[in-house]
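Quick one from the shared queue. A colleague (R.T.) flagged Unplaced genomic scaffold SPHSTscaffold_39, whole genome shotgun sequence as missing a structural entry in our internal table.

Convert sequence to structure tokens.
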Amino acid sequence: CRPCISHNKFKKVPLYAYANNCWLGSVPEELKDLSFLEELCIARARSTRYMIKLEKGPTGQFASKGNVCIFPQEPRSLESVLPPPLNILHDEIAIIFVSSPENPITVEALQKSPLLVRRGRILRALQWLKEYNPLYSDVTIDHATLNRDYPENGPAP
């Protein structure tokens, strides 16, 4: 990959190389390619606030940065019912799209953004985690919230 080639050129071990103990192995299909918001929907614990600046380039998102502050949490305060209602996530996330007349924000751009939500992907990810991750064994999947709050495929309302 491009980052590895760049590191190798300077005779450095790539950041995410197996030699750095950062290799995660294969990721199950159910957890691959989840959007930022979909990952938040399946997380048992979340940081208090996210602030991300996105700039739209010719091929979509090319910059994403922000600060995250995570406070220690008691294990009993972990979410036991997932996904959370979207109004809870609305209080925790602020996303500002920077555009210009030459590069307006379009529905197509929003569908490539971290706001993309695919109800089926969230459900499959939660089912996989519940079956294979002992930390999710006691989680209840709230089908009513999933069907009421989350679109089948599109930007979060």
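Residues 1-27 form one domain.
The longest helix spans residues 119-132.
Added to the table.
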